UniProtKB/TrEMBL annotation:
This is Cupin domain-containing protein. GO terms for molecular function: metal ion binding. Keywords: Metal-binding. Residues 44-112 form the Cupin type-2 domain. It comes from the Bacteria. It comes from Microbacterium protaetiae.
């Protein structure tokens, strides 16, 4: 592994889901050789939400919101997020998010994750909960 690598992921305004799903997601760590840090670039159009909750056994994640307005469910809490919000979520905590229907544009964020070992040693560390209902009160 070299001492640095460069990857162009494009203008956040152009992030879209090539399959037409609700979440545009790009796993940066699959495209650039990282060893200890995982990252993804994400976007949800206004009114969109992720289709499941998830948690990690070992990894903690930091969400850096870049544009739009939304809500993030963290455990039993719902927090408002917008450009400039940063949310850290520790291991074992369920999380989900949505873009508010009246968001001025897509909710866009970077997710940065790391744990106590290399990503390769940790392997796939996520669990999905498709049965838990979303907490959004309309």
């Amino acid at each position: 592994m070299s001492s640095y690598d460069i990857l162009e992921i494009g203008d956040p305004q152009a992030w879209t889901d090539p399959d037409g799903g609700p979440v545009a997601k790009r796993f940066i760590d699959k495209e650039i050789p990282t060893q200890y840090i995982g990252a993804s670039a994400n976007a949800l159009e206004p009114g969109g939400e992720v289709p499941f909750w998830h948690s990690h056994d070992v990894l903690e994640e930091v969400y850096v919101f870049l544009a739009g307005r939304g809500q993030m469910a963290v455990g039993d809490d719902v927090v408002e997020v917008q450009a400039g919000s940063v949310v850290r979520v520790g291991p074992g905590v369920l999380r989900a998010w949505r873009a508010l229907p009246d968001s001025p544009g897509a909710l866009r964020w970077l997710c940065i994750r790391a744990g106590g070992d290399t990503l390769e040693a940790i392997g796939r560390d996520g669990q999905l909960d498709r049965e838990r209902s979303m907490p959004w009160a309309e």
